Amino acid sequence: MDNRPIGLLDSGVGGFSVVKKIIQKLPNESTIFIGDSANMPYGNKSQEEVINLTRQSVKFLLKQNVKLIIFACNTATAAAMPTLQKEIDQQIIGVIQSGSLAAARTTKNNKVAVVATPVTIESHAYREEIKYRNKDITVSEVAAPNLAALIESMQDYDTNLKAVKEAINPILDNNFDTLVLGCTHYPLIEKEFSDVVGKDVKIVDPADQVAQYTYNVMKRDSLFNSADQPAKHEYYTTGNAKEFAKIGGSFLGDSNISVKHVNTENL
Ligand code: DGL
């Protein structure tokens, strides 16, 4: 038994898509989520910058005494997880292995598409992980440099739809039956993605498998909360706390969430 909270980090509001699935799958667990909105988007930065920024959020979570850390960010998983895992004595769970497993299990025609930030796409982490599971799968990868920031700025359906269309357009004729949302911001506008690719394409949100994997790890390592105290959920951002609460609350279906502003520099 371990009553400490689960820590999650992202460059911004995208982490809420993982928080939501973790709360659903592990309702007795407390969570602490930090979104580094002041420094987003991570997906257009150098690997070194992503490592340095992610390290700050990791330090913040370690100070909160979390029992494990979920990188609720594909960009941080692709660019920073291997380095930071060596630096700390705390289990880190990323999102790309889970998303790849889900994609390999979902496709029927062995054609998968992945849309993600430039950093994630350039790492080819999804392509490698998916092909590792089934070498016969063809993976179309497309980078969407502007989409995460657009989602962070909360636009209307039509604006999002146009941006998603533009982003997916280069691969739209590739006959894929499965689309991986390879950035945790994207599930916040899953409907727009679904409307662009059509109902015959299955959308994979890696967070579902991340929640299952986290459950498995916690069971294996006896990390479950003893449930003698109610689960608590804490939210922090380096950016505007009000905006963060507005997007997060509407996505979680809880308008009462409270978000604290935090400065993660010089921790
Ligand atoms: N949510 C992050 C991800 O999953 C990236 C967004 C960004 O570019 O900051 O990749």
| Helix/strand order | EHEHEHHEHEHHEHHEHEHEHE
Structural class per helix/strand content? alpha/beta
In this structure, how is the largest beta sheet organized?
Answer: 6 strands, parallel
Mean pLDDT: 97
Number of helices: 12
Overall shape: it is globular
As an assembly, this protein is: single chain
Helix content: 40-55%
Distance between the termini: 29 Å
* Beta-strand residue percentage: 15-25%
Strand order of the largest sheet: 4-3-1-2-9-10
Query: What ligands are attached or bound here?
Result: D-glutamic acid
Total beta strands: 10
- Would you identify the regions where 5 or more consecutive residues have pLDDT less than 50? none
Radius of gyration: 17 Å
Describe the structure.
It is globular and about 50 Å long. The model has no long low-confidence stretch (mean pLDDT 97). Helices cover 45% and strands 16% of the residues. The protein has 267 residues and is an alpha/beta fold. It has 12 helices and 10 strands. Strand 9 (233-237), helix 12 (241-252) and strand 10 (259-261) form a beta-alpha-beta unit. The protein has a 6-stranded parallel β-sheet, with helices on both faces. It has helices spanning 15-25, 47-63, 74-79, 81-87, 96-106, 118-123, 125-133, 147-152, 157-168, 190-197, 206-220, 241-252, and strands at 6-10, 31-35, 68-71, 92-93, 111-116, 138-143, 178-181, 202-204, 233-237, 259-261. The chain binds D-glutamic acid.
